[in-house]
Write a structure and sequence with these properties.
mainly alpha, two-stranded antiparallel ribbon, about 0% strand, MetI-like
Amino acid sequence: MQDKIFKVLLILSAVLIPIIGGGIILSLTVDASGAFEEFGFWKFVFSDDWVTTAGKESYGALPFITGTLLTTALALIMCIPFSLPVALFTGEYFKGRKIAAILGTVIDLLAGIPSIIYGLWGFYVLRGAFMYLDLSPQGSGILTASFVLAIMIVPYAASLSAEFIKMVPAELKEGAYAMGATRAEVIRRVIFPMAGSGIFSAFILAIGRALGETMTVTMLIGNTNQMPDTLRTTGNTMASIIANQFGEADGLKLSSLIAIGLLLFLITAVINIIGKILIRRARHV
């Protein structure tokens, strides 16, 4: 009897998840339909207008899509050189030692810090440093937001990558050492091929974390509704424009913000699908 109840619960859970996902997409599509009907889907996606004047309203998502993709890509580029060494340090070089346990605890602590704390630190500390180094004239901007995003996603990528590195069978590594391989060769020819798909999935999850980040980016990106022409300029992401203007929006503007939310949902879904396809291909290589 207990097995039957457990099986029913599993089936209900499996059915419920697609229903929730479909419901989210449906509700966003219905609420965003006003913007798509007014401007057209592709015009809305590729327009850089954001005019809120009554009677002359014109909305486009391109500046915010660009800001989102730029900050996410930069954060990932800055994250990789830090997260991979940390993962190798805790998962291979000092596996099982006290120093690895301490570093792992610190990484978990960093992963659990609320995003608003990162935002406050970036706003009051990092902005001044960026201005002093002449990396950003006003302190806030694409580069500043990307740098803090990178710090935020390093713990996710490093912790998950370390777990996959630890899962590589010891027999394979010992066999490579017995054949005269160096530590670097074992990492390159044994660990990375075996744990590569898992490490890649860790970075896909980190990308998803960066794409949807709201408060930190809102505090540091400058919040200007313009196409970013350099990394030093201010801008907005899809999440930050919604956070900034949703509370006071109505009518066509509200519909446009919901449309941006729908686009963010779709972009995240597409990136995750592409990531899963690449992971499957890597497993069969």
